[in-house]
Amino acid sequence: MDRILEILEKDARTTPEEIARLIKQDVKTVKKQINKFEKDGVILKYKTIVNKELVVKKNNELRALIEVNILPQKNLGFDHIAERIYQFPEVASCSLLSGTYDLLLIVEGKDMQTISNFVAEKLSPMENVRGTVTHFLLKKYKEDGVILKRKEENKRIAISY
């Protein structure tokens, strides 16, 4: 992968000046390359990883991994069905898998009922969807290569008899 992309992928806040210094190129060339990556769709978005466990809980969304078994349509394969599924606003991510299931979805909702309703009312009834398995995410330890710092737990005093 391009060195500029590697640097931005590790920390999107790295300035073109810092990147130029790291890769020993002039700033104008680095800025031009970044603009080209953005224009060509190589860089799609700059992202901040938020440790939601450390944020005051107001409207933290629940996330679920959903494995989907589908029957591909003739002459269209998996892409057509995947496109229909990833259009739902609840679907944060959609990937084609090898193995027992065909698609892996990351679905977000305000609570378990919202996600259950999505599966029962929108996903499962779709033509060509043969089955689903839902796994609710309980806690994250690491995201996108970043270890998430945890809140200090209440330390209990050990009592022995």
Briefly say what this structure is.
With 161 residues, the protein is an alpha+beta fold. 32% of the residues lie in helices and 21% in strands. The protein has 2 domains: 3-39; 54-139, Lrp/AsnC effector binding domain/regulation of amino acid metabolism (RAM) domain (Alpha-Beta Plaits, 2-Layer Sandwich).
Identify the notable features of this structure and list them briefly.
four-stranded antiparallel beta sheet; 161 residues; two-stranded antiparallel ribbon; alpha+beta
What does this structure look like?
The chain has 161 residues and is of the alpha+beta class. It folds into 2 domains: 3-39; 54-139, Lrp/AsnC effector binding domain/regulation of amino acid metabolism (RAM) domain (Alpha-Beta Plaits, 2-Layer Sandwich), CATH 3.30.70.920. Helices cover 32% and strands 21% of the residues. The protein contains 5 helices and 6 strands. The chain has a 4-stranded antiparallel sheet with strand order 2-3-1-4. Strands 5-6 form a two-stranded antiparallel sheet. Strand 5 (142-143) and strand 6 (146-147) form a beta hairpin. Helix 2 (16-23) crosses helix 3 (27-39). It is flat, with a radius of gyration of 21 Å. The N and C termini lie far apart (60 Å). 13% of the residues are buried. The model has no long low-confidence stretch (mean pLDDT 89).
List the helices and strands and how they pair.
Layout: H1 3-10, H2 16-23, H3 27-39, E1 62-70, H4 77-86, E2 91-96, E3 103-109, H5 112-123, E4 129-136, E5 142-143, E6 146-147
Antiparallel strand pairs: 1-3, 1-4, 2-3, 5-6
Helix pairs in contact: 2-3
